[in-house]
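User:
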Amino acid sequence: MERSLAQPVGIGIVAALVGFTSSFAVVVAGLTAVGATPEQAASGLLVLCVVQGLGMIWLSRRHHAPLTLAWSTPGAAVLASAGGVAGGWPAAVGAFVVCGALIGLTAAWPALGRLVAAIPVPVAQAMLAGVLLPLCLQPLVAVTAAPLLVGPVIALWLLLARLAPRWATPAAFGLAVVLVLTVVATGEGTLGLRPPALVLTAPDLTLPAVVGIALPLYVVTMASQNVPGVSVLASFGYAVPWRETLLVTGAGTVVGAFAGGHAVNLAAITAALPASAEAHPDPRRRWVATQTAGWAYLVLAALSPLVTALVAAAPAGAFEAVAGLALLTTLGAALAAALRDEPHRVAATATFLTAASPVVVLGVGSAFWALVVGLAVWALLTARPSRRARGAGDAAAGGRQ
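Assistant: Predicted structure:
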């Protein structure tokens, strides 16, 4: 391989490995929480890899730009916090279809995108932080239940977070795999391996699933993935073909939903690797890194049964602890954005607490109610007083003078 191609190809492989190992456990946990069996969760992980891989190959070659895609990690966290949904797994699949349709509709109907953008940043980020909190608590919960298994994983993650941050989560995942395989080899667990396979599910549209899963999934995917993804690429001088990207990811989400995929979108954090000078000194050649990452995800798709089997065989919370460690930075950034402005902290805090709670009302989980509560408190505390109320206040002030 010529030297000019070796650099972007290597970065593309690294981007895929980091993206996959740092968040696949969140995806598996989210799909399982809304009713997927291990086989259905493996199918969902497989189709997500395939859809985002093909999407990257198509977009990067067509535009010669590092248009990196990813599954919606915040969206998977929404699923994990939602718990069981009325109608079970078919209803969750129906919600995934609706989410994909909304993403595609945003490309054709810009007003929908403006509506999402109108959600105050502190409220949107506080909802994301509340959704992430239970997952980020998993390292603490797991280390108390299995200290000899989870303790070394946390220690390695902390060490590499200081010395080589990019490799902290992949290395922690690798150590967890070794330790879980050791547990299995000693006869304390079983590893049920199956060949890669798509498990199709007929979607069932239910109001609680649409309101409680599809809408929060759409909002966090747009606000926490697509919009930041555009900003990341713009910071490196790349313009995102917004409508085409939304159509590709929206259609991919709809198609993938039947096999259990929840949402595909622009990458945010991992987008920086292929778009940076690390991929290639010439910005016109960096698209090769994204092209490589796309092909790498097609290879990683074959590993979906193995990683889901590892999660199933591991002691409770082992891989969830790795996912929690990987999401700590995202949680910190969400909290910082939510609480940055003092006048809006009450609304942000109310949103955060609601999202982090196990509240289920009318069969709808806490992520949706967090938006309702946050927007209501925001409107109440930021609304300007009416002219009559201002006049009464001025008169009362004058009377006190």
